[in-house]
């Protein structure tokens, strides 16, 4: 039995159980630098747990995924958050799940605009970076340090995502 997943627009409200949407939210704006800059303040915060842990800033260059796509697994980072912000103004897919007794529930798929990023809260089930159409760069803020920061769960039957309409 094929289990297909619908794709929904990424919104703060829909994503709230999983983390924060990084976007130019007028409710957060502060005019700084003599009025020359708008600061969209404290859109989210990075978490890095454990001794000697640190928050690091990375670049990810994601290769485009082919569709229909089989979501065969989900992962979570027990020691830190993970933030993805697109640098090429290109849409990407965000796939998250609620936790159900230690395993991911049915994934929820969101289409992020090219001016939206996400910060997965620590321990939130998600699928690794899902780039669309062409290789795309992302600024990624996550945790480095000792200890295992990756837990993966593989589904008995993958969920299928059809090609997103961009
Ligand atoms: N492995 C890695 O650094 N990235 C993944 O955690 C991911 O969510 O893309
Ligand atoms: Ni991850």
Automatic annotation (TrEMBL):
Name of this protein: Ureidoglycolate lyase
Protein species of origin: Rhizobium jaguaris
PANTHER family tied to this protein: UREIDOGLYCOLATE HYDROLASE, UREIDOGLYCOLATE LYASE
CDD domains: cupin_UAH
Superkingdom of the source species: Bacteria
An example Gene Ontology molecular-function term: ureidoglycolate lyase activity
Reported function: Catalyzes the catabolism of the allantoin degradation intermediate (S)-ureidoglycolate, generating urea and glyoxylate. Involved in the utilization of allantoin as nitrogen source.
Needed co-factor(s): Ni(2+)
Keywords, sorted A to Z: Lyase, Purine metabolism
Subunit structure of this chain's protein: Homodimer.
Keyword DNA-binding appears in the UniProt entry: no
Family stated for the protein in its record: Belongs to the ureidoglycolate lyase family.
Keyword hit for Amino-acid biosynthesis: no
